[in-house]
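Can't paste images in this forum, so I'm doing it all in text. The chain is below; anyone willing to post the predicted structure tokens underneath?
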Amino acid sequence: MSKPALSSLHQALRKSFKTLENNQTVWKSVLAECSPLMVSLGNLAEQSRALSNVQISNTPLRDFPDLEDRLRFKLLQATDTVLGKLNEKMSSLQSVRDAISNQVSAVVQLFEQNTDSLDVLAVTERSATTPSIADMLEWLQDAERHYRQQFLRRKTLLQTLRPDNISLLESAPKRWKSLESPSAEDCITDTLCKVSFFMESQ
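Text version of the structure:
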């Protein structure tokens, strides 16, 4: 492989891993902000369920006209607000997914443009501080796939939620938590450790 091609590919790989590192931090922070919102959603669903189960007309509160309707309206409004905040968080997660996808696409495209000047040794050669180009491209594509799938699953879950569908809202926090993929996140962190010397070298 020609020296300039190898050098530009290494630069693009460094840039990609830097993008991955920065965006992994943002992703984790946004997901941490989503957790209390999902808990709120579950709590509001429980309150709606309790309101549906109680006969206000059989309690001392019957003297307050329209109380049940007003309480239900308040709960629907609060649920709608929380869903709105979660959708804002999804925009942040989408930005992370897009940043990683665009960067990985760019480095893969650069690699493909230089395939004529590549030899197998240049692609598979590794040293104590620099993993092989083949390994690094594979790690980046794995990370990109992880964030793409995670975003899609979380977005799909949120799209099924409606303020007036108590059952789905009640199960939402558990279903959201079930989407967590600590092994994939650990794998990305491990990858960033493997390329740390490479990222610092120029």
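The chain has one domain: 3-200. The first helix runs from residue 3 to 53.
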